[in-house]
Predict the 3D structure of the following.
Amino acid sequence: MYLSMQKNFRAFTVLAFIVTFTMFLFGFTLRDPSLYFFKYAIRKSDIFFSNGQCGCQQCMTELEDDPWFTERFNLSVHPLLSRRNSLLTNDTYRWWQRLQDHKDPANFSEVVEKLFQVIPDNDNLYKDAGPERCRTCAVVGNSGNLKGSRYGPLIDSSDVIIRMNMAPTSGFEEDVGSRTTHHVMYPESAVDLENTTILLLIPFKTLDLQWITSALTTGSIKETYIPVRSRIKANKNRVLIYNPAFFKYVYDTWLENHGRYPSTGFLSLLFAMHICDKVSVYGFGADRYGNWHHYWDNNYHGGEFRKTGVHDGDHENNVTLLLADKHKIDIFRGF
Ligand SMILES: *[C@@H]1O[C@H](CO)[C@@H](O)[C@H](O)[C@H]1NC(C)=O
Ligand SMILES: *[C@@H]1O[C@H](CO)[C@@H](O)[C@H](O)[C@H]1NC(C)=O
Ligand SMILES: *[C@@H]1O[C@H](CO)[C@@H](O)[C@H](O)[C@H]1NC(C)=O
Ligand SMILES: *[C@@H]1O[C@H](CO)[C@@H](O)[C@H](O)[C@H]1NC(C)=O
Ligand SMILES: *[C@@H]1O[C@H](CO)[C@@H](O)[C@H](O)[C@H]1NC(C)=O
């Protein structure tokens, strides 16, 4: 801690000296617009102020951290499923199977094996945290509060941009941006993707893992508890699976078992917190009139989203606000 502060202080001193010296040399005053370059450069070069945990000014894991956060944030639970971590504990497996109570699930380990014959099994993805990395992430929810926000360029400037379920960008670029690096979905909410976008599947049952395998190959699975897309357009080299063990960790540790299970938005937020150094949240919650609806439609759902009986939106909202309070995430509230 002391050493890294000293290093930062030294870097800052050197920078301050350069700026002062340049000002002196060219007789600039602080009001001179050309100095905005320096201000901008200082702000952009977060590295000078980094605390050593990551390359950003503020990192997800700080050296002197908040006890509430450190008690919960567990980097050893990996958000993605791989062959290696697919041996779920009995507890996790049983909890996960009960989420949607599907009868007679297929043999999990056989399903996982078939799945990873179709999609890549990369156990090292995103495990690259370190003092050089400053990965900025935007988690973009679907709230109507994005309408008129003009957040598009800000969202698009992030390294990772996570969208979910039916979220369109076409026609809404000014407010929601146009880039999508990760699209989170489950069979019942699936959409076609660009070749470069990563599909992040949240499985709620064994059948969902069979569905993604099928939807990328034979198209034989056509329904779950409702009819679903039998095929989707997506790059099968860019498919990731949300780890059921991580799912349970989010529910137990972050939601303290409120609601039946976490919402897609909350699961995406925790995913981002585990793979990013800096997380910004857009399009969460109601609009400024207290209405709950999607940014792409005008169907007001009158609180239906908040209290579906499945998710505890109030509690998720409380935890999200607490994370912002503790400067772990930035919330962009929209309009
Ligand atoms: C973090 O997760 C790992 C793996 O699930 C577990 O063994 C460990 O006890 C957890 N640590 C804390 C502090 O909860
Ligand atoms: C997990 O469940 C299996 C089958 O139900 C059982 O054979 C095994 O002993 C259980 N393991 C533990 C650690 O409880
Ligand atoms: C699932 O399949 C594996 C591999 O074929 C087998 O070893 C295991 O016993 C099966 N589990 C159950 C519960 O049938
Ligand atoms: C999509 O990307 C893959 C590489 O990840 C490439 O092999 C394939 O040709 C691309 N498909 C299209 C339609 O661009
Ligand atoms: C959320 O926070 C509010 C205000 O602190 C509190 O009244 C409410 O009980 C909390 N709700 C849940 C579900 O924790």
User: Anything to note?
Assistant: Residues 2-43 form one domain.
